[in-house]
Amino acid sequence: MKKIVYTVVIGMVAGLVIAQDAVVVQEKKSDVSVSSDVGFYSAYVWRGQILSDRMVAQPSVTAAKGPFSLNVWGNWNASDRADQDTAEMDYTAAYTLPLKTDNVTVDVGLTCYTFPGTGNEAAPSEEVFLKSTFNNIILTPVASVYYDVHEVNGWYGSLALSQEVEISDALTAEIGGSVGYGTENYNKVYFSKQANAANDANIYVSAKYALTEKVSIGALLQYTCLNTDLAKSAGQNNDILWGGVTLSCKFL
Known about the structure:
CATH class of the largest domain: Mainly Beta
CATH topology of the largest domain: Outer membrane phospholipase (ompla), Chain C
Largest sheet: 12 strands, antiparallel, barrel
């Protein structure tokens, strides 16, 4: 009888060990993630353009599996001004190329821009992009190029530099900047000026505080300067200081 009991106990322990190992292996193999965030900003600024100078809300959801990711991003006016209906929904599919080095990350993808606002006359458009991030450098350079395949048929490129500083286990800060460049077709559509030009320059500071392992809050302050000639052609201001706060959550 004792032998039977010992055999059962040993079998149960062995089963638990095997099951635990299986769980650990499964966790290691799991590469699915889902996250979301929502930002509240004093303005909506995109590639130097001040699309809204009033408070906006910008929610976002991202799902990723391995090198593939899908993102849905939105922008809504928090004010009731009819002349600034900037409702927007963007859908992005991206793929991280399998490189043999960890020093460089290259993403390719497609973004579909839609504008469901009742007073928004902007036409839907699609844009393909390539984004290269150079890791393990004191300053992190990110070079990106975008080509609109629908409405614009023009190129926009940007070069960004940033540096993250860990202040504590929960608090990180970042400082960075970027410059953007547009081709003739791009600037003709967006600014009514057909010319290759350095479009915009940006500098920002941000901070993020982890409330838990999956929830964090953040803050951003950014200064954006638009090319003076482009701003005049489009009837826009050529600079703005803006910022806001974000709430982020990881589900998986």
